[in-house]
Amino acid sequence: MPEALRVERFEIPNHDGWMLHLRRTCRTPPAPSRRPLLIIPGYGMNSFIFSFHPSGRSLEAYLADEGFEVWSVDLRAQGGSKPVGEPSRYGLRELGLVDVPAAVSAVLERTQTNTGRVDLVGCSLGATLMFMYAGLHPEAPERMGSLVNLGGPLRWERAHPVVRLAFASPALAGAVPFRGTRALARALLPVLAKVPGLLDVYLNTRTTDISRAEEMIQTVEDPIPEVNRDIARWIKSRDLLVDGANLTHSMAGVRNPLLCVVALDDGIVPPETARSPLSHLGSLVREELAVGGRHGPYAHADLFLGRDAEARVFAPLGAWLLARYGE
Fold first, then answer.
1. Is residue 153 within 8 Å of 274, Cβ to Cβ?
2. For residue 1, is it within any domain?
3. What is the pLDDT of residues 168-227, one digit of tens each?
4. What b/e readout covers 189-220, taking b as 16+ CB neighbours within 10 angstroms?
5. What is the distance between the alpha carbons of residues 96 and 91, in angstroms, rounded to a whole number?
6. Residues 129, 100 contacting (CB under 8 angstroms)
7. Angle, alpha carbons 234-237-242 (nearest 5°)
8. SS3 call for 19
9. HEC secondary structure over 246-291
10. Is the residue at 15 inside a domain?
11. Better pLDDT: 105 or 184
12. Residue 280: which domain range?
C-alpha cells in the first residue's frame, strides 16, 4: 500500500498585519536536489482548490506523487490566514511584494530540500503576483527557479466583455464591499449549471463534474475592494503599474524558465492575455501548453477541476518542471 500523503500546516507572519497560512504536501521525503514548489492562488479564491478534485487526484496530490515537495499558500484574507491586530488596507502591491516574498522565505526556511531556490506556480491572479515578485522584488533572482503561469494575466491583450463591464469603473469597483460570496456561490452554482452555456466562460459542465459543488465552493473568498480598484485600472490601461513601474516592461529582466498554461475556452483570462508573458519575459525558455479546443472545452476553473486535468494539465506541468533541472 502506498504511503499516505503527509500534510503539514504552518502559520508565518508577513510583518504587515497578517499570519499567512502555508501547507506542505509530500508523499515521501523529497530528493535533496529537488526544488520545493509553491502554488499561489488568485482572485476571490484560496488554496483549497489545489488539494481538491471532484473525481480524481488533486494538483497537489499528483505533484506529491511525482516526488515534489508541494507548498500552497493562503495570502492575507484567504483560507487559513489570520489578521494580527488591526490590519491596514491593501491592494495588489501588498499581495505581490509583501505576502509572496514572505511565503517564499518561509518555504526556503522549512524545505527538506537543499537547492536554495523555489519553483513558483501562479494560478489566475496568483500568476500576476508571481510576476510582480519576479520582476520587482530585489531578492527574487536569487530565490526563484522555474515559473508556471496557470491561466493568469500579465498584460490585458484582450478582456471578455463581461469582465470589462464588471471593472469598467475603478471608483465603483473599489467602493463596493463584498460579503457572503461563498454563500451566494453555494446557492447559485447548481442553478446556473442548468442553463446551457451560462458558466462556460469560467467552468464547463461538459468538462468538470460539479456534483461535489458544496465542497468545491470552499475555495471561494470575498473580493477585496482595493484589489478590485487595482484590477479595474489595470484592465483599462492594459499594463499594471506598481509603485510607478510598468510590470510588463519589468519582465524583460526575468531570465527564469516560463511555462504558460492556456485554457483555450477561458473567458475570464482569454488565451491572448494568458499567453502575454511569453512575449515579454527575458528567459530563453518560454513555452506554452494549450488546453482545450478539439479535445474538449477548457475554461478557467477546468484547469484545476477538469475530469482529465491530470492528463492534460498536471502531468505535462510536472514533466516540464522536471525537464528544467537539466538546463
1. yes
2. no
3. 888 887 776 777 888 888 887 777 777 667 788 888 888 998 888 889 888 998 889 999
4. beeebeeeeebbbbbbbebbebeeeeebbbbb
5. 9
6. yes
7. 50
8. strand
9. EHHHHHHHCCCCEEEEEECCCCCCCHHHHCHHHHCCCCCCEEEEEE
10. yes
11. 105
12. 6-326
**Average pLDDT rounded to a whole number, residues 149-156:** 98
Task: Identify the top-confidence range among 53-62, 163-172, 190-199.
Answer: 53-62
294 and 321 Cβ atoms separated by less than 8 Å: no
Find where cell 484589489 sits. 227
- With respect to residue 82, please indicate whether it lies within any of the assigned structural domains: yes
CA dihedral 266, 270, 273, 276 (to 10 degrees): 60
pTM over 0.70: yes
| Rounded Cα–Cα distance for residues 203 and 197 (Å) | 9
Q: What percent of the chain has pLDDT over 70?
A: 97
Residue 235, CB half-sphere, CA atoms under 13 Å: how many?
23
What confidence score (pLDDT) does residue 4 get? 82
The CATH number of whichever domain residue 202 belongs to comes to: 3.40.50.1820
Q: Do 151 and 262 form a contact (C-beta atoms < 8 A)?
A: yes
CA-wise closest residue to 247 among 128, 166, 138, 165: 128
Q: How many domains does the chain have?
A: 1
Contact 230, 91 (CB under 8 A): yes
Within a domain: residue 294? yes
Cell 536536489 belongs to residue:
33
Q: Summarize the confidence of residues 112-126 as an average pLDDT.
A: 95
The phi and psi torsions of 286 (rounded to 5 degrees) equal -135, 110
Q: Where are the alpha helices (DSSP H) in 91-246?
A: 92-94, 100-110, 125-136, 140-143, 161-166, 170-173, 181-192, 213-216, 225-237
Q: Residue 177 is placed in which grid cell?
A: 464591499
